[in-house]
Structures are given as structure tokens and as C-alpha cells.
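fwd from M.: "can u put these together and see what the complex looks like"

so here's what she sent:
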Amino acid sequence: MSTTERAPEQTHLSTGEDIGAWATIRRGVHHSPELKDGIGWTLALAVLASVGQVIVPIAVQQTIDKGLRGADGPDPTFTLWLALAAGVAIVVTSWASYAMTARLFSTAEHGLATLRVKAFRHVHDLPLLTQNTERRGSLVSRVTSDVDQVSQFLVFGGLLFVVSVGQMLIATVVMVVYSWQLALVVWLCFAPLFLSLRFFQRKLAAAYGTVRRQVGALLSAVSEPVVGATVVKSYAIEARTQERIDVAVEAHKAASTRAQGFTAFSFSLGGISAGFANAAVLVVGIWLGQGFAWGEGITAGEVLAFAFLVTLFVGPVQMGTQILTDAQNAIAGWRRVIGILDTPADLVDAGPDGQSLPKGAIDVRFEKVAFSYPGGSEVLTDIELVVPAGQRVAVVGETGSGKSTIAKLLTRLMDPSRGAVLLDGIDLRRISESALRSSVVLVPQEGFLFDDTLAANVRYGRLDATTDDIVEAAETIGLGDWLAGLPDGVETRVGQRGESLSAGERQLVALLRAQLADPDLLVLDEATSAVDPELETRIGRALDRLMTGRTSVTIAHRLSTAEKADVVVVVDKGRVVQHGPHAELVGQPGTPYARLHASWVRSSGSGDPR
Amino acid sequence: MATAISGTGTTSAGFAVLWVAIKREPWIFALSTVGSLLFGALTVADAWVLGWSTDHVVLPAFRDGEIGSGLLWAVLGLFVGVAILRAVGIVARRLGAGIMQYRMQAHSRRAVTRQYLRLPLAWHQKHPTGELLSNANSDVEAAWGPIAPLPMAVGTVAMMVIAVVQMLLTDMVLAVIGLLVFPLVIGTNVVYQRLAQGWATRAQQLRAELSEIAHESFDGALVVKTLGREPEETERFRAKAADLREANIRVGRIRAAFDPTLAALPNIAVLFVLVIGVNRVVSGATGAGDVVTIAYLLTVVSFPIRSIGWLLGDFPRSVVGYRRVAAVLSATGAMAYGDRPAPAHTGGARLEVEHAAFAYTADRPLLRDVSLVVEPGKTVALVGATASGKSTLTTLFSRLVDVDAGAIRVDGTDLRDFEQGGLAQLLAVVPQTAFLFDDTVRGNVTLGLDVPDDEVWSALRTAQADGFVAALPDALDARLGERGTTLSGGQRQRLALARALVRRPRLMVLDDATSAVDPEVESRILAGLGGSRDGRGATSSTTGMTLVVVAYRKATIGLADEVLFLADGVIADRGTHDDLVARNPDYARLVNAYEAESAEAAR
């Protein structure tokens, strides 16, 4: 069945790697509109906070000029007032700095929480195929640690970058006022840095993209011994498992170190450029002063003043490059989260135009349905099937015949490649998601349970079910004794993935869920394969009652189910090869059904098993 | 690695964490610190170069109207030389800090995952997957976070010491006033650490819980999808994400107040120095130049204080992360192993269970008193109702858990006396729910065992898995998705069976391991296993093997030399299938349910 090759572009999550840095930020902000809230005020506070840096130099300057070397000798009164004013200014600007950072934390965390939740929801809206091909660890890292990376950048980087660029421009203006020639020289010295920035950004983006991917791979590797603890222990493959983890740990370390190397190198370029700029200003200044070039002469004082101006320019440039390089890590994380949102939820919900299904048993029709996995060959071909409302159908066939695919198409976990599945005459694709999920319930072979109480798990079927409802439902399908025998009844905790219960008991919980959900179409995919025969027949009788008044499609390999169905559908190599009541089909020797039945009788049927 | 960090205060605990890292990576730490010192020294040199150029080049050039080109080159060379050396310092500092940080992360991750592999199943069952993932990822990251600003802080401490000494030499009184800033800095830090610690702990805990919800929810995606529970799951995640958001904002607010306060303290001290200094100048106690010098030196000190602030600011999260990691590393209760190797015999092994009892919780005993013997080469069927304890018994066989009382022996050796890995060489348990790794088919079957492909194929053939494996695009090299989600339940079970067979175990336990396989295929599998016992259709992987099967189907039961009927935690009856059907009504009802059903239907 699902053994065919798949085209990766169809079933994998978008990595987001094709999104540019600015586009990432733009779209990130688009997905988290909170980030824009009150940005004006925050910016104003940032400007106020940056004023704080010049208070003390000005105070010292004023004290020297007027407090110490005043016309009438040292002036303590002036100094006192000056210090008080400066003190107030420090308090105000410090407060501005606090308020700015606190606001940034608040908006960033609000925006990112929204993004996390959106991405989480979108993972659930992805097609089953995509969910299955993605590693869990990687999906988890996208809604957890990738988002955390963005937070650091938004708080400590984003705004500071804007401020740095502003300071850089102001410094340029002042330099031009002093000497446009020397300003040009400074810019020329920094030109290689600015030009190479793009190159480094690309390198860094790739390097940090690898880092974020390695985090996902690392989580996947770590989850193996955690989730598969029993296999690892019973086969004593600790060494091999550890080796696989060590490889992931090393790969992550190597990728991080590589990225850090780029960061350090690109950051150091700023310092080298500054060295060139300082030297060039002096040399060209002297040159200009000697009248070798355009413009009027320049004085020694002006050249030296310019040397200090250069430091005003270099500071923000270095800060800006550092932020840009650090940003690549955050942007790599941001990309991966946006990548989730970019992956189409290809089973498009019909939305508000979606039709609802009338209450009551549903009639099912498959019209020339074919299905193939992306890039694979057809798993189902030209399936024609009519199930009148209220009928019980058993679908049988060998492993790999495609019978489980029928269940998945019927519950719209996948859409057919050709043809249509109709419920009550309406194409499944035109039925609203909520209507579909409340009318059609699938009980899968391996019923996943959440680490909670049994009651909480059963309520996935009906949210408002009371304890009495659950007990009653259990009685109805003959599970009353079992439920009563559990240590804490419905309040029994089931453990992670339900592992405190046996595989058979997990299936019972899944059936109980379905019973409470009260569907009009019940699809059972080998739902009782792990319970003992006595219990299965007991449940079978209960399911008879459950199926009354509903349509049911049972995917079965125990043919005891088929014997009781109104109609048996035999699937072989992706086609329906036989169709009819059990009694009729079993009497046709040489047919696939007769063969299946014979083997069933041999394995579990009458008489001496030997 | 599991060094317990002492110190009740976060600051001392934070330094203790860093000390662990420095001891572990002294050379890299030295390299990055030297880089940082180089950077500091060359920052000072920059000012010196400017001064030298002014005195020897710029001023003479303007005074004399001409200057030798040699001197111009010297200016260029000096500036560029200093800049390049400083760049080297930056690279050494940043790269060194990075390497140290990533190495420590890798050390911790290796240690934590080794512990995951060492700790017994009981421990795993108590710790959610998401939490363990978080321990290995975000907690490790948090623990070693302060390594990044460390070299910078250490480097600037040197700068600070020089500045302080200069201050003391310049004017003792003003210096003392200036140095009052240090107790204030320490006080601010103490307050910050106190305030931030609680919220940082909570944030880190919430990170783990959020990761747990995401992991579980994505694991159960099929259930969520088919029951249309996306809104409720999203709500569950949203609530936790909101808690995390609030905790992060609280930590952020405290941090937002800490940084500017630290920055403001030296500035305020400068103002005090100015006011008092001017008064001292008036009274003649101090020279004007000294006031300026002290004020300048204080501003020099303010930068190191801030960079130390960045270091201290990371401490609360680091200490929390380290403690969470240390909790895993110090967890005890690993399964004890003996020193007995697997015996070198071939052929079936003898299994003996003597008065075994087991319970996960004291109020719900699963196995009360189980005794049984399976002779070498024999096949025994273990039959019992759903949840009667059959699977529990098989987990005892593979020593995933140990008996509470009694003993289990293979070839006379108590399971607890085997050396680690010894038992796995002679016994294989195939569980009902097959767990596959994100690896190739070959990798999943061999699990790293060095066996040629034809033996892999032979095992696959016995497990009736050769057909669908051959049809995969890359056959043995086909990659299965995580947990083999690309395969059907029956296919996964057959791969798990092949995994056991390829090891040629002397004792194999099948825990309803073919429940998802259809009867026709199952009967072929059983023929492959069973045929070998009497020489018919024997496959090399199964010759002489002792076999314990948990089963319901009569075909499976039919293979058995003896049937053990498990009920209420004891072996309620034993004998051949016919005997049991004849004398034990409970047994008969259980295994004959289908026929009874068919008979009823026929009436």
C-alpha cells in the first residue's frame, strides 16, 4: 500500500530556505501583527535611551570648562546644579531604556506566541502524508526552539539595528559638514565591508539554516531511545543508538562552530575597516592640508577632530554588523516556522460554503476512484462502490491490497487522485470539515492515547461527555466489566501514548471514543486486531448494536467480521474483485474470497487445529 | 559532568557552572581569554597610535608643509597593523567562546543521552518524551549560555583592575567615592538574581511542558485529525504558550530593569566625583587634572561593569538549565547487570520461571505467582484474555523490568546475572507494537549487527517480508520514515519479526507479534517457524529454537507442544490444547469464541 515512492516536494514541509532575509522579517511580522503594536512609542523611547550615552561626557566637558576653569576659578555651585540636572537626565534615560526593553519583550513574546500557535495549528492541518514523512523532533523544534531564537533577536537586535543605522547616518551628515572629502574617504574604506556584507549574509544564512536543521535532527535522534526505549533495551543496542546520537550531536556542534566562525570573521572585518579609515583620514587629511587636491586647505585641528568623528561612525557600524550576523540565526529559525505556514494544507476545507450532512445514516458512493501517492504508482484503481444508508460493509483483502487506503479516502485523510467519494450524494471535498468530523468517525488500528486519564482520552470523541456517559457507553458495547476492573476506573491514567495499557486495551478506548462520538458513518480499520477472541466477539455483538441505524465500513482481516456484514467487498491489487454477501461469495470456489476464507478457517476455524 | 554545583545564591551557582566548563575546556578558555585581552590591549594601542601620529606626522606635516612618504606609510602600517591584530583578537575571542560553548553542549548532550540509555524503563515511564527532549536541547543550551559573554567579561576585568589601581594612585579620596559603585553593583546583582531566578525556573519548566504538548499532539495527529479535535488541541497548546509568554515577559521586565541600572551606577558615581572633586579643588586638596582623570577612569570602568552584567544576566537561566540537566545525570536506579556472558551453546535454550510476581503499582498486581518451564527446542503457547498479564510476562523475559519476587532463568542462569547485552544474544522478544527507527530496512533489521545481506533476506523471507521489501524502491536500502509510518501495521510487525530472526536467538518470544498480519500470510510465517522444529521447511535462522508465543489463533496455538493458560496473574492451567479445551471451560470459551459466534450466526 504505502510502499511506493513519493515525490518529496509534495509530502515534505517547506524549509523556507528560499525566503530572503527581508522577506522573512516582513512575513514574520505579517504573521505576528502584535510586533507592530506601539512600535512608534518604543522607537521614541529608544532614541531617548540612546541620548543617555552622551550625558556623562557632556557633564564632564561642562565641569572642565565652567566648573573648574571658569573665569572666577572653580565653581562648586554650578557643578552641583549641573550634576543634579545630569542625574535627573540619567534617571530619565535609564527609565526610557527599561521601558523600551520591557515593551520589546512584551510585544516580541506576544507576537511569537501567536506565531507558535498558528504554526502548531497548521501542522495539524497538514495532509496526513506530510505529517507522516516529517520527523516529530523536527516539527517540535519548529514550534519551540526555533521560535525562541527569534525572540532573542527581536528583543536585543531588531530595534538596536534601526538605531544603529540612524546613528551611522547622523555621523555621516556631521562628517560631511566638516569635510565632504574626508567623509567620502571614510565611506570608501567601509565600502568593501558593506559590499561583502551581502556575501557574508548569504554564507551565514546557509550556515545557520544548517544549524537549525541540525537541531531538528538532534531532537529526532534523541527521541529514538526515549520513545523506542523497549527495543533499545531488549536488543541491547545501546552502543549503536548512542553512536547515532553522537553523530547528530557532532553534526550540530560542527554546524554551530562553522556558523560562529563566519560570525567572528565578518564581525572582525568592521574593525579592520575602521583601522583603514583612521589611517586614510590622517594621510588624506595631510594631503588635503598641503593643497594637493580639491577644496580649500584643511587645518591640523580639523583633521584631528575628524579622527574622533570616525569613531562615532565606526561604533554603530560595528554594532550593526554584529546584529546582522546574529540575526541570521534568528532568521533561520523564523524561516523554518514560516516554512510550516507556507506548506499548503492541501485538503482544503470547504470553509463556510461547505455543505453539512443531514443527520441519520449516510449513503456512500465511490465513483471511479483512483489513488496514487505522489510520484508512485496507483494503489487503488477505478473503485466503484455503492453502500446504501445503514448497510454494514466489510472490506477484505491481503495485506497491501489497498484496503486501508479505502478507509483513509472515506474519512478524507487523503483525497483521491481521480474520481470522487460521495457521502449522501455530496462530494467529500465539498463537505465542511466540522460536519465531516462530527458525522464520520474512523477507529484506526493503533489508537493513539494521550498521557492523561482514560476519561480525558474518551472525551476526544465527545467533549461534554460526563463520567456517567462514559460508563454507560462502556456498558453499551460490553466493556463495563473491563472498565470496572481498572484500578481507578475512568480516572485511570493511561501513561505516555497509552503505554500503561495493553495494545488490546488501547483499542477498547478507541472504540469507546467512537461510541461516544455517535457518528452516522463508522469506519473501523482493523480496530479489534489486538483483543482476545472472546472479547472480540463480545465487542462484535456490541458493535452490531452500535452499527444499528448507521452505515459502517469495516476493514477486516479476521473474517469473522466479514461473515456478519451485509456485504463483503474483496480488494485485490487495488481493484474491487468481488462484491456480495458472505454466503454468496464463499460459495464461489477458486475466487480470492474463497482463498482468504479457507486460510482463515485453517488458522482459527472449527475443529482440531492440528 | 554531574558535578553538583554548590552555593545557595544564583551568582555563586552561576560561577560554579562556569567553573565546570573552564575545568573541562581549559585550553579553549585560555585561547578566548587571550583573544579578549589582545582586543583590550589593542583598543588602548589604537589611542596610542593616534597620539603618536598626531605628534610625529600630522602636526609636523602641517607645520613644515611637507612630510616624507615613509612616515605616511608608517601611519598606514600602524593603524592597519593594530586593526588586524585586534581583528585576530576578536576572532580568537568569539570563535573560542563559540567552540567552548558548543563543546560543552556536546559533552552534556552525550552525557544526558547516555543516561537515557542507561536508566531503566521504569524511569522512562515517569518522564514524558517532551521533557527528555527539552533536557537534551533547551536545558543544555541554557546551561552553557553564559560561556559566550565570559571571555569578554574576563578580559575587561583586567582593564578594570588597571583603571582602579590608577584611580587609587591619583587621588585616594575621590577614588574611594568612585569605588563605592562596586558594592552597589553587587547589591543590584543580588536583587536581580533573586527576582529573576523564580521566573527563569518557571520559564524553563514551561518550555519543557510546551515541547511535551507539541510532541504528544503531533504523535497523535491521526486521532486529532479524524476526530476533528484540532481546535481543542490548539487551545491546549495556546494556553501553555501563553503561560510561557507571561513567564518570559516577567523575566524580560526584570532584565530590562537590570541592564540600565548597572549602566547608570558608574555614571552617577562620575557625577559625585565631579561635585566633590570641584569642592576639593576649591579647598586645595586636589588638582583639577586629577578630578578629570578619576572621572575618565570611572567611565572606562563602566564598560567592564556592563559586560559583566551581560554575563550575570544569563546566570538565572543557566543555573536552572544546569540543574535540570544535572537531575537527569544524577538519576539512579540503572538496571544492575551480572558478569555472566551468554553461553556459547547452540540450539534451543531452556526457559524457567519460578514463582515470579510483578506489579507496577502495589494495588494492582499483574502477575502473582507464575511458574513455568519451557524445555529446549519446544514451543509453548501463552494464552490469556486481554490484559491478563501476558505482555507483562514477556517484558520480564527480556528484562525490561525485573520480577518483584521469584526468578527467571535461561539455561539455569538467572537473568539478572547476565552481563549487559548477554541476554540479548540468546533471547529475542517480538512485541505486538513494532517500533521502527528512522533508518533503512537493513538498518532496522540488523540494528547494527554485522550480518551479510543474504541472511537479512533469509530472515525477511521467514517473516514473509521479502515480497514487500523487494518491491520498495531501494529494497534493503529504502529508508523508512520515523517509526516506520510509511508502512502498514502488518508490514511493521513483519520487519520486527525479521529483526529478531536475523539474530538467530536460541529463545524467541512472540507477543501476539502477527496480530496485524492477515491469516494467509500469518500461516506462512508460522509454517516457516514451526516447520523448522521437525525439519520440514527449516530455515537456518530458526533451527532448534525454543519458542514462546502469545496467541489467540488456533493455528498458532496448534504449533505449540504445550499451552499455558494465564488468568488472574497465575498459570491457571497447562496442557495440550485438546486437554485444556476439554477440561477448562474458561479456556474453551476464550479460544472457541469465533466458532461459537459462527455457530450462533448459523442458527
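replying to her w this: The beta strands of chain A are 364-372, 378-387, 392-396, 418-423, 426-427, 440-443, 521-525, 551-555, 567-572, 575-580.
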